[in-house]
Amino acid sequence: MKRAALLIGLDNASQFPPLKAAVSGAKSVGEWLAAEGYQTTLLTDENGGAVAVHDVKAALKSIVEKGDTEKLVVYFAGHGLLNGLSELWLLSDAAHDIDQVIDVSRNVEAARTCGVKSVVIISDACRLLPGTVSQSRTSGAMIFPAMNDYSVDVEVDRFFATRPGMAALEISSGQGAGSSDRERYVGIFTEALRDIHIDPDATLIGPVTIEGKASVGVLSRKLKSLLPHVVDGRAQDKSLSLRQQPQLVLECGDDGYVARPTTSKGGIARKSASQLYRHTASLSLNRSILNDFSIPVPLRDEASFRDFRDRARPPFALLGKTVGATIIGKPVASAFSPDVEVGVVKSGRITQLRVRDDIVSIISVVARFEDGTGAVIGIVPKHHTTVMVEPFGISNVLFEFAAQDWDGKLGLVLDYGAMASEIATAANFGMFPESREDAQAFASSSAHFNNPTLTLYAVMGLVEVGLRSKISSLTDKMAWSKSSALFDLCLHLGSWSVDAGPFCPLLSQTWAFLENDMKNLPDNIVEAGRYRQASLWTTFTAEGMDLIERAREAGELQWQQS
How far is CA 530 from its chain centroid? Predict the structure, then answer.
């Protein structure tokens, strides 16, 4: 079995500002991995060239279809966006053709059936939010061939150059004035990833198997804590105002790696791993409840993390007393349900949506905010839904028992709010999940709670790291899901109830699975999904809400999955 790498470097993407280190970064990584024994394929826009989706698909197909690859690295350097939970890579003509975009998140799922045991995706690209309406409705292309090989448990590791919402930086390499402009710039992340394999600290090295032979490698799990500090330190060395912290989402075991350690003639001075680890603190959830599940947060992020978490947590004074919903953060212009009558009571930035208390299945409520954006709210029997809305979209949704069903559950209601806001914040910061262990730990710890929000967050974590098969054992314990189920759960379980709701995904993540797992969702609803804000929970742009209204007029909001 061999190792293969596909390197993509694009300095130019239509109307976007030109980059200076994407092509050189791809070439540099290609040379490094080739020296490591990888068979490499390089795609760049050097010398006025262009790279299109069909070029990338053809290159991957030629690698995967041979069936003799044990490790595949896909490296991209260029412009990127983060639309909801969708990581987007922009190819040469992306500004003029929305089909010239690669959706990393969807391709992670496609890679799971490619038959290659280890897939490593390395993205040296920004993860900024879309800046225009056309960018916000961008969905991405699939590049992995449909191999449908389920015989291999594929592990997909993701190395992102920066955290969600942040830029991936290029800096001057300090070379002389005689060098070309592009040669004098490097991507901080790419350069650091290469350098960390040169004369690495001994604590980073461990046994691995390469093409059937025992060897040693720089272990990915060791890099997870170290690499963010190395990259951020290099940014700070350039300017105190610069920040960049990579994010590693790992599914590999302890023997996961990208390359072996190498040596330099003079050696490289480097802080030890133990010195760098001390910069990480843990903000822990209620330990007595969640069995020591915790979220590591870099100290310099603590203030912004806590601020976001506090905003995402519904005020206890506003917890619902009846079956219905409360929307906090954006004034609601209008609301309706295709299922029941809805009463709307508005008070500034807080809106109460009232329905009858005796509903027996999940209902859909469409709420349009005064700025034209909006959302589809799910109301679960015997529960009140609280929706926390930020300017960028919905940050958190809490399903808690309606007051008439508290009966000694008040402490649990408070715990639900604390736990949900913590996970919502971690997910918005790109800190959850960062490994299969993270996802499984949270799913295991939250399994005994009979709460739809925690179930959805657990499902989100399992799906993100390729553990959809674990969802059924989680939901089997949820009493509320026996009589009816939320759309997202039904889709991932492949089991639909006539009482399932609401009529579209609640989580932005779920939209990536519609194409493969659903065939009869009405076109207007599918198209509305392309007009979403970059938020954890589905929040439609004004154009998306117009399409939902069109679906209402066409009688499509009460569709049923066959």
Answer: 16
* Beta carbons within 10 angstroms of residue 182's beta carbon: 17
- 7 vs 166 pLDDT, higher one: 7
Separation of alpha carbons 182 and 436, rounded Å: 38
**Bridge partners of residue 170, in order along the sequence:** 187
Distances (CA, A) of 104 to 33, 253, 329: 21, 22, 31
Tabulate helix, strand, coil % of the chain (nearest 5).
35, 25, 40
Under 8 Å between Cβ of 383 and 398: no
Q: Give pLDDT, residue 320.
A: 52
* Residue recorded with tokens 């920004």: 126
The two three-digit tokens of residue 337, written as one number: 């349900």
pLDDT tens digit sequence for 339-350: 899 999 998 889
What amino acid occupies position 271? K
DSSP letters for 377-438: EEE-TTEEEEEEEETTEEEEEEEEE-GGG-TT-HHHHHHHHHHHHHHHHHHHTT-S-SBHHH
* Residue 502 to residue 561: CA distance in whole angstroms: 12
CATH code reported for the domain at 2-276: 3.40.50.1460
Question: pLDDT tens-digit profile of 283-335?
Answer: 334 333 444 455 555 545 678 888 999 999 888 655 556 899 999 999 999 99
Domain with CATH 3.40.50.1460 in the chain: 2-276
Check the CA dihedral 497-503-508-514 and report its sign.
positive
SS3 88: strand
Contact 155, 193 (CB under 8 A): no
Task: Out of 87-91, 427-431, 514-518, 522-526, pick the least confident.
Answer: 514-518
**What confidence score (pLDDT) does residue 274 get?**
36
The bridge status of strand 118-125 relative to strand 69-78 is parallel
- For the chain, the maximum distance between any two Cα atoms, rounded to a whole number of angstroms, is 77
Model pTM score: 0.76
Angle at 147 between CA 257 and CA 211, to 5 degrees: 30
Question: How many other CB atoms are found less than 10 A from the CB of residue 223?
Answer: 25
- Distance from C-alpha of 326 to C-alpha of 424, rounded to nearest angstrom: 18
**CA nearest 511: which of 148, 86, 60?**
86
Phi, psi at residue 507, to the nearest 5°? -90, 140
Residue 358's contacts (CB-CB under 8 Å, 6 or more residues apart) are none
Please report, for residues 204, 226, 258, the alpha-carbon distance to residue 232 in angstroms, rounded to integers and kept in the order given: 19, 10, 21
DSSP 154: -
pLDDT at 285: 40
Contact 281, 297 (CB under 8 A): yes
Residue type, 349: R
